[in-house]
Amino acid sequence: MYQAASEQHRKIVSAVARSAVRPPKSMRNLDWPRFLKAYYANVDAADLAAREPAELAGTALSHLMFARRRRRSALVRVFNPTLREHGFTSPHTVIEMVNDDMPFLVDSISLSLTQRSLALHFLTHPIFAVTRDSSGNLLSLRERGEASKDKDLPAEKNLRLESFQHIEVDRIVDPAALHSLASQIERSMRDVRVACADWSKMQQAANQTARDLSSLSARFDPNVLSEAVALLTWMENRHFTFLGYREYRLQGRKGREALQPIAASGLGLLRPGHRHPGSTRRIRSSDIRRQSRSRDLVLVTKANFESTVHRSGYLDYVGVKHFDAKGRLLGERRFLGLWTSAAYSSNPREIRWWNTSRSLPTAMTARPCSTFSNLFRATNCSRRPLRN
Length: 388
Fold this sequence. Notes:
Blueprint: H1 7-18, H2 32-39, H3 45-49, H4 53-66, E1 75-79, H5 83-86, E2 93-100, H6 105-115, E3 120-124, E4 127-132, E5 138-143, H7 146-149, E6 160-169, H8 175-197, H9 199-214, H10 222-236, E7 240-251, E8 258-268, H11 285-293, E9 298-306, E10 314-323, E11 329-339, H12 341-344, H13 362-365, H14 372-378
Helix pairs in contact: 1-2, 1-4, 6-8, 9-10
């Protein structure tokens, strides 16, 4: 929802609309004042007042022109604007993006900026309902929610929400650094896209894994089994941000086993053909042998590459053993993602999967407000990162 505009905000946007900057004749069907109102709706009036109306109009028009043609992938450019080329200038480096509206967009771009120690100076992030033809050409653009409110507007079956982000950061003068940042953001947006597209499928995989384990109740320690099933159920309940999933088959003679990926089973970051710079083909053989001999059905640890989606840090890794109907170990079902803030703030005593057969560390029992975050660090769940 857009915030209610103050009187000062309305006056500034009206002045921007009255400036000499206008969209080209090919876009005259656009309600320019209404577009500007939506474009700057969530920018503080004080930030707008620090800029000339013509500069603000040029900034919005530059973004609109950049968005004129787009297929399914994100449009990203990182540049130092000039009046001649872009219609406005800035002492900062500008990032413009147009993408399908989805979770984690702002967080993921901010992650790229933080990694480069770039300070953010200005941000506007409107969401528009747009229609495009089969070639990706922009046909119409409306304020989000406008179509449902205005009954005089015709319904359009190809209407979709798109995120427009204009971000200004510390000035970058090196052309190679500009290109590198743009490439990093594009990679991050591809990761966001596949993770969001496969989110429900990864949740279904967790659910199916829990059902498969439950069917083996006659072959395993009931406490260990129920704990594993409860963990998977707990993960699904807003405690784990699913980013990748893949199944692995245990192969090789005894003592030299290796987990080989089943490529077609991959989802999210581990989709077939989706390239991630931190991924590798297999985990250490010693880790496989140790885990295959243990009584634990689940391995909770860290992957060996850092998150490009939502939050910084190494990805969390949950590996669940996979068995046939006779209880023979076939391989592993691997989930990559991030424990959510709800998970880290949970009290261990209220987590069903932390079975009563396990004892909490002494340090934990002395603090009534202890959390899963402290428990994770206090136990041997947090081991050295594994290769994927």
